[in-house]
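In the current project phase, the collection of sequences with tokenised folds has grown. One resulting record follows, to show the layout:
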Amino acid sequence: MIQLLKRVPLFSELSDDQLDIITSITSQLEFEPNTVLFERGDPGSAFCIVVKGSVKVYTSNDEGHQKILAVFHPGDSFGELSLIDGKPRSATVETLEDTILLTVTNESFHLLLRAHYDIAQKVIIQLCSRLRATNTHVYDLAFLEPSARIVKNMIRSAKLHGERSEDKLIVHTPFSREATAGLAGVKLHILDEVLQDLQEEGILSIEEHQYSIDLAKLYDSNYIL
């Protein structure tokens, strides 16, 4: 369990002893595919860590059209702001497959922070880091061309969830068009045009259960990261 918590950005700077304390206030829950964990506007009462499976975070309009904001895999976490302010959720979260989560309630977390200032300080630093990353993402959406946003988000995801093999980043999960388009803020037809170009140039290879990005070919191409 400690090794999993070390992969969670919010807890990455904590010692093993501090992670033992975090472990003591977690609960493990299992969910079937397509289970809505919470909807936008629901009370924020828990922080979640993906142990197994994956979830998507999205918003939707009155017509039911979804905009995917993120897809989380094992080691990823979400709902950290609810640990601090307990305000309503800003997006809907749904499982994509059989999923196991570790959860921490905001009540338990506040009690822990009052008793352990050293943990509180490190957690606050990590929350600031997450906010800076969000600001960067907003900048990308505002100023980068669609093709650059697509490639940048693919590289970011591959670095987080894949492995390096010589000049390639290999991700051992199916490629999600919907998630990639949502993260880059583009329509699916635009994404498909970029994907076709990337595959024709040998930069991207998509198989049934994995995909890979050739970094050497990417850096020799005209795509701006």
